[in-house]
Amino acid sequence: MKIAWTTTETLEQAKTLARKTVEARLAACAQISGPITSIYRWKDRLEESTEYRITFKCLEAQLNTLKSLVLEEHPYDTPQWVAADLTDVSDDYREWAEAGIS
Question: Do residues 52 and 32 touch, judged by C-beta distance below 8 A?
Fold first, then answer.
């Protein structure tokens, strides 16, 4: 399994992206947390903004399509997209995820 993250400016943007990915069966689950504070450089300036983080859980087979959908639909010019392997997933959770995605 994989876990991936992105951030959005508003809760509504986060909900829209989360729903689209789960409805398309690309993510077994999308969790929204926030508001969070992000501090970063943008166009050579130090920026601080309030954002909402979306955490996606998916299977490796769906990761590239999930990424494409998120990047296509995302309102940011340069959205965050990071993903990682999950190394310890309970059998029951993996089975639930597989059933929800396939």
Answer: yes
